[in-house]
Amino acid sequence: MIELRAPLPSDVEALHPLVAGTGVADTLLWDGPASLDEYRRTWLIFVEEVARGGRQTFTIVETATGAVIGTAGLRPVAGSDAAPWFRADIGLFIGIPYQGRGYGTAAVRQLLDVGFGKLGLEKIEAAVFVGNVASRRIFEKNGFVLEGTIRKAVRKRGRLVDEWLLGIVREERVSA
Ligand SMILES: CC(C)(COP(=O)(O)OP(=O)(O)OC[C@H]1O[C@@H](n2cnc3c(N)ncnc32)[C@H](O)[C@@H]1OP(=O)(O)O)[C@@H](O)C(=O)NCCC(=O)NCCS
Asked: Which residue from 58, 50, 120, 53 is spatially nearest to 86, judged by alpha carbons?
């Protein structure tokens, strides 16, 4: 299986080949790193944000091999970011060689444990490009419900994209 652990600056060396030029970013708002150096700088910001109690980014590690296979994180939704934040959205990716093994589902489950546990959040959301069925599935398998479709939600590589908004509130997690 997998575990989420605190991000280390050196993780970016393993993450870069999983995302750069692989198509993993096709269904992310982020277009992927422009270069390894740019990714190093961005990743360092994420590492520092964790320490400051802001956006919580984790490195996903395959337990059996210790391989770094992706990242997952919780970010306060605008308007709920005054501490303590109560509402967050999830972003994650799993490198293509590691997809389809239940790791994405497990990563979301572990993020819910952190979010509703240690962070004390009230609500966790995910915005998924319409048509990204694998992503919608990993959230629904973890108890998220479809709250609606946001039309023309974001611009991705010059094209306006609709998003499914999925969410789960604390009470649903407790009774799950
Ligand atoms: C979305 C993502 C994290 C899923 O990770 P994963 O480790 O492959 O997910 P899992 O193996 O836990 O589960 C995938 C589920 O989607 C299903 N699935 C995958 N592709 C599918 C498709 N084209 N149509 C229908 N179902 C599909 C799988 O069958 C599985 O469901 P099941 O367990 O009920 O069979 C991964 O594909 C990814 O990183 N994609 C690129 C980045 C991205 O889109 N991130 C999410 C942004 S919101």
From this structure: 120
Residue with tokens 């080949």: 17
CATH architecture of 2-175: 3-Layer(aba) Sandwich (3.40)
- Model confidence over 138-176: pLDDT tens digits? 999 999 999 999 999 999 999 999 999 999 999 998 655
In sign, the C-alpha dihedral spanning 167, 118, 50, 5 is: negative
**Residue 25 DSSP code:** G
pTM over 0.85: yes
Max CA pair span of the chain: 45
- Residue bearing the CA closest to ligand 1, atom 24: 133
Q: Is the CB of 133 under 6 A from ligand 1?
A: yes
- Stretch (H or E) spanning 109: helix 103-116
